[in-house]
């Protein structure tokens, strides 16, 4: 028996798919045969995703989504169902950081991170679950962060949301496991994306010293773990947090 | 066209995997027909589809027996 990783006939929805880890995930799921809907916050961003998919021969499209708006989520969900069919795979990847020391943190820095990184996961999952329970098959994969487990000074808001999605996944996994739906969390370490490019050189060097593999990870190395979980090959993994961090944090 | 009673009973039997003759009007989904909480949520979803309506959560929670389901559909779609 070979590894069962084909996603032919499945519709996958990936939030935050215009760049970085989300783009790599969307491309890889598409390469495995899924019809992929990748979301971006702006119309030009969504159009770029559509072009990228077309160039790579991936079925699907880029769509505009504001994950902090219940209305935007509900509109997108209806549009996807009408155009492509109900998503069987949901990857909650969209996320933001608003770093600050807690004593200086503003309410809006806290609220916007919670809204984008955590509340959106609740809303997106709820929107997709109905059809997944009917289909008796579904995959929800949340992209967390090593920071959710390790903690990081200046990221109390971000870390709280990233730990939050893992707890959410465990609870939901218990709720809907009987319907053939798995919910998992992938926690990347330091990955070479726009989010980590902004780190000062000194901090980058310090970080690399703490990573046994001695390098940053690539977005594709996260995408391959997500793809495994999305496929039938990963079908018996649920409620789990998988750390992909070059050994910087071993749980 | 079958009656509302028949359609509701058929859906309950299908969703909960029980025989249609066991789906008596007074039967409670949880206590008599072995449904768990997720089953009852799915049952309401199936009723919503069959009767092309939306049942608000606060109403759905009150639908705990076959008769209550029939009554709800009759009152709201009749």
From TrEMBL, chain A:
Organism, as annotated: Microbulbifer okhotskensis
Catalysed reaction equations from the record: a (3R)-hydroxyacyl-[ACP] + NADP(+) = a 3-oxoacyl-[ACP] + NADPH + H(+)
Annotated pathway: Lipid metabolism; fatty acid biosynthesis
Binding locations of NADP(+): 16-19, 41, 93, 158-162, 191
Entry-linked CDD domains: BKR_SDR_c
Lineage: Bacteria, Pseudomonadati, Pseudomonadota, Gammaproteobacteria, Cellvibrionales
PANTHER family noted in UniProt: 3-OXOACYL-(ACYL-CARRIER-PROTEIN) REDUCTASE (PTHR42879), 3-OXOACYL-[ACYL-CARRIER-PROTEIN] REDUCTASE FABG (PTHR42879:SF2)
Organism superkingdom: Bacteria
Protein name per the record: 3-oxoacyl-[acyl-carrier-protein] reductase
Quaternary structure (record): Homotetramer.
Automatic annotation (TrEMBL), chain B:
Subcellular location(s) of the protein: Cytoplasm
GO BP annotations, alphabetical order: lipid A biosynthetic process
Domain of life, per lineage: Bacteria
Residue positions, PTM O-(pantetheine 4'-phosphoryl)serine: 37
InterPro entries named among the record's database cross-references: ACP (IPR003231), ACP-like_sf (IPR036736), PP-bd_ACP (IPR009081), Ppantetheine_attach_site (IPR006162)
Entry annotated with the keyword Protease: no
Domain Carrier: 2-77
Keywords: Cytoplasm, Fatty acid biosynthesis, Fatty acid metabolism, Lipid biosynthesis, Lipid metabolism, Phosphopantetheine, Phosphoprotein
Gene Ontology molecular function: acyl binding; acyl carrier activity
Post-translational modification: 4'-phosphopantetheine is transferred from CoA to a specific serine of apo-ACP by acpS.
Family of this protein: Belongs to the acyl carrier protein (ACP) family.
Protein function: Carrier of the growing fatty acid chain in fatty acid biosynthesis.
Name of the protein this chain belongs to: Acyl carrier protein
Organism: Microbulbifer okhotskensis
Higher taxonomy: Bacteria, Pseudomonadati, Pseudomonadota, Gammaproteobacteria, Cellvibrionales
Gene: acpP
């Amino acid at each position: 028996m070979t590894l069962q990783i084909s996603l032919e006939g499945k519709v996958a929805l990936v939030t935050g798919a215009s760049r970085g880890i989300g783009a790599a995930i969307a491309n890889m799921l598409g390469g495995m045969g899924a019809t992929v809907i990748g979301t971006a916050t702006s119309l030009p961003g969504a159009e770029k995703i559509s072009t990228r998919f077309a160039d790579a021969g991936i079925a699907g499209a880029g769509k505009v989504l504001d994950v902090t708006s219940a209305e935007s989520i509900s509109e997108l969900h209806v549009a996807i169902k009408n155009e492509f069919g109900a998503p069987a795979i949901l990857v909650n990847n969209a996320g933001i950081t608003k770093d600050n020391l807690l004593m200086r943190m503003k309410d809006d820095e806290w609220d916007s991170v919670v809204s984008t990184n955590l509340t959106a996961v609740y809303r997106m999952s709820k929107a997709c679950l109905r059809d997944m329970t009917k289909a008796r098959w579904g995959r929800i994969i949340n992209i967390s962060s090593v920071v959710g487990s390790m903690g990081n000074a200046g990221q109390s808001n971000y870390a709280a949301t990233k730990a939050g999605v893992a707890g959410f996944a465990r609870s939901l996994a218990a709720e809907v496991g009987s319907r053939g739906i798995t919910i998992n969390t992938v926690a990347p370490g330091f990955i070479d994306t726009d989010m980590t490019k902004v780190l000062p050189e000194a901090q980058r060097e310090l970080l690399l010293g703490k990573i046994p593999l001695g390098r940053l990870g690539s977005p594709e190395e996260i995408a391959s773990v997500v793809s495994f979980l999305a496929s039938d090959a990963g079908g018996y993994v649920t409620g789990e947090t998988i750390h992909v961090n070059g050994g910087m944090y071993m749980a | 066209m079958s009656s509302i009673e028949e359609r509701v009973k058929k859906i309950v039997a299908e969703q909960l995997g029980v025989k249609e003759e066991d789906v008596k009007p007074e039967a409670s989904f949880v206590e008599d027909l072995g449904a768990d909480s997720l089953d009852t949520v799915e049952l309401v979803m199936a009723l919503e589809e069959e009767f092309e309506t939306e049942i608000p959560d606060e109403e759905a929670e009150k639908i705990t027996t076959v008769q209550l389901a029939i009554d709800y559909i009759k009152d709201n779609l009749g």
